């Protein structure tokens, strides 16, 4: 529309084609898509979804959503969802989750990057470790995991995305086999294609707030990086963004905004309740999707125009000159010969 809200999107994948239409309220919050009707108050709290009322307190913390009840600690961190419980360190980072007979622990480095995850099961009234994994990083981007025996379990090769690692993966590897991830305009991974056979091995569709509505997999997906290109933790169902965890079922963050009121007065609100127009690459700041797409293509085009010279000699041989260091006027030339 005139403001920039996305009104319609057409999707086509190996599961077929589907069209989505969206409507917004006066504050540009999403109130309708193909399958859901949302109602928000002036503070950005989702007070109803599909006729089911939600309850919040004065701190904008979600207390009740349908049959689900929630509790928080003094710092505003979500510590209980029904029978599940969660523990945090002094920095508000999730360190333990107790969910349906399992205990999962997490560790972090001084830069707040998650380093490891270890899972336990209860046997004869004792917690017994059943699996563990360590995480690999490229700068602040999580790019893979190493198993408990030192084997490479997963890896993704990063290119240029919408913002940060959102939509940036160009190749993924799981247990020694390579796959190509395909993204939608929001940076969600929508399909996983075998790099050798070119067959689609997994497909995913999401509602606007990240709930997986359709999956081609009857078992656990091979690819953990799905909604907004982020890792989904099977134990909690939460999406790990780096600075915070996001619960797609709640449609909000599980802990307050580390940047406090930079993004508004509601410290739990996800991208101003307009996930078709905005993304959040880390859980700190939200950004306009279309703007970053335009800026990315503009930067690529500018680099091509400024740093690439194409010429042909009298024999028709084409020469492409790449100016790798424009400021130093240093050229690295590569020649492509056309024998026509």
From TrEMBL:
Keyword Repeat: yes
Teneurin-like YD-shell domain ranges (all copies): 1-260
InterPro entries: Rhs_assc_core, T6SS_VgrG/RHS, TEN-like_YD-shell, YD
Keyword presence, Ion transport: no
Top-level taxon of origin: Bacteria
Keyword entries, A-Z: Repeat
Full protein name: Teneurin-like YD-shell domain-containing protein
């Amino acid at each position: 529309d005139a403001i920039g809200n996305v009104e319609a999107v057409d999707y086509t994948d190996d599961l077929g084609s589907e069209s989505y239409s969206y409507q917004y309220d006066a504050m540009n919050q999403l109130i309708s898509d193909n399958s859901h009707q949302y109602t928000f108050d002036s503070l950005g709290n989702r007070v109803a979804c599909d006729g089911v009322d939600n309850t919040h307190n004065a701190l904008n913390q979600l207390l009740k959503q349908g049959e689900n009840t929630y509790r928080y600690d003094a710092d505003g961190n979500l510590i209980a969802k029904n029978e599940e419980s969660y523990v945090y360190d002094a920095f508000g980072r999730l360190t333990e989750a107790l969910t349906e007979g399992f205990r999962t622990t997490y560790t972090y480095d001084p830069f707040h990057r998650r380093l490891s995850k270890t899972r336990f099961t209860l046997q004869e009234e004792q917690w017994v470790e059943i699996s563990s994994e360590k995480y690999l990083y490229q700068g602040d981007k999580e790019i893979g995991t190493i198993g408990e025996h030192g084997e490479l379990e997963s890896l993704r090769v990063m290119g240029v995305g919408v913002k940060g690692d959102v939509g940036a993966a160009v190749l993924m590897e799981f247990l020694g086999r390579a796959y190509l991830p395909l993204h939608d305009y929001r940076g969600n991974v929508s399909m996983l294609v075998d790099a050798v056979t070119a067959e689609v091995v997994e497909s995913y569709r999401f509602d606007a707030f990240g709930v997986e509505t359709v999956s081609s997999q009857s078992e656990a997906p091979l690819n953990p990086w799905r909604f907004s290109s982020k890792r989904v933790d099977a134990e909690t169902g939460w999406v790990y963004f780096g600075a915070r965890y996001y619960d797609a079922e709640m449609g909000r963050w599980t802990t307050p905004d580390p940047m406090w009121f930079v993004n508004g007065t509601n410290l739990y609100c996800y991208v101003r309740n307009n996930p078709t127009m905005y993304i959040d690459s880390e859980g700190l700041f939200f950004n306009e999707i279309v703007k970053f797409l335009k800026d990315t293509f503009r930067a690529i085009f500018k680099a091509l125009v400024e740093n690439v010279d194409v010429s042909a000699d009298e024999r028709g041989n084409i020469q492409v000159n790449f100016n790798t260091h424009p400021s130093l006027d240093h050229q690295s030339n590569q020649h492509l010969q056309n024998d026509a």
